[in-house]
Amino acid sequence: MKSEPLDRLSHPIRVSYMLGAKHRRFGLAEESELNRNGQRLLIKTKFKGTDHHQYIWALQCERAECGHVYGSNGSDFHLRRCPKCDGGAPGI
Ligand SMILES: [Zn+2]
Question: How far is the CA of 55 from the centre of ligand 1 (A)?
Answer without folding.
Answer: 22
